[in-house]
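debug: dumping io for the single-chain case to check the tokenizer round-trip. Nothing else runs in this session.
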Amino acid sequence: MENALKTIQKLLDDAIVIKLIEVTSGIIIVAIIFRILSQVLPRQVQDSDLRYRIRKGITFVGYAIMALLIVLIFSDSLGKLTVIFGVIGAGVAFALQEVIGSFAGWVAISFGQFYKPGDRVLLGGIMGDVIDISILRTTLMECGAWVKADLYNGRIVRIANSFVFKEPVFNYSADFPFVWDEITVPVKYGSDRSLTREILQQVANEVVGEYMPQAQVQWQHMVHKYLIEDARIEPAVTLAANDNWLEFTLRYVVDYKQRRGKKDVIFSRILDEFDNTNGSISIASTTIHIVETPAFNVKLTDNT
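debug: decoded output
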């Protein structure tokens, strides 16, 4: 018992041990305070995006205060610990290079405008909506895979932030929250081409025309911000003739989250309008025409 007390007394006389105790106690206190703040303050905010940012800001400030506390406590002993920290730091940097890369990726994401919570992105072949950005990982609600047309499939995917330095980041909703989409309509030869073009244009204007004013404004911002052409935002119909049918292509701008729903409405309206033309327009399908058949030589023998 006496030896244990002497050992404890000896440790308490060591300045480094005292500072370690102070650092540990300070970190625990700061963690508790900021944990309470991160739970209480966001509840006072109604806007979900602002609430998310407040929670992340509180967490970042908490980590910064912890780091500052360590520096302040060890400020008079840093000279003695420089060599030790250098050796330990080199080993930690090598062992945790992916973690360090992810932290650097988080800094790049935060200040480089790669994406933000709520954006739809494509990272390494995985498409989904960003639902959280932590210091080390980005969390996506995945779209696609076995589910088509950009719909959620229910899987949550976590991707290391270091990924932004390794491969391209595709953002569907950053500066221009719309995407161009196309549908192809095969029409039989002999159909009324002018009426077909008119119907496709009219349907597109009625179904996705609501996006035009906002899309025009957003695209003008893009033109002023980037070196990019002033592309056409209004729906456009083009025609190509091939060996089988007249191929009409309808190109239009749509909200990136409404692509499948709007395509369903457009196709339904087009088919209804074609049915109302009393045969002037007919949908084409693949057909096979036998142009010429080879000659067959048939020899009959009488076996009776």
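debug: round-trip ok. The chain has three domains: 1-110, 119-171, 178-276.
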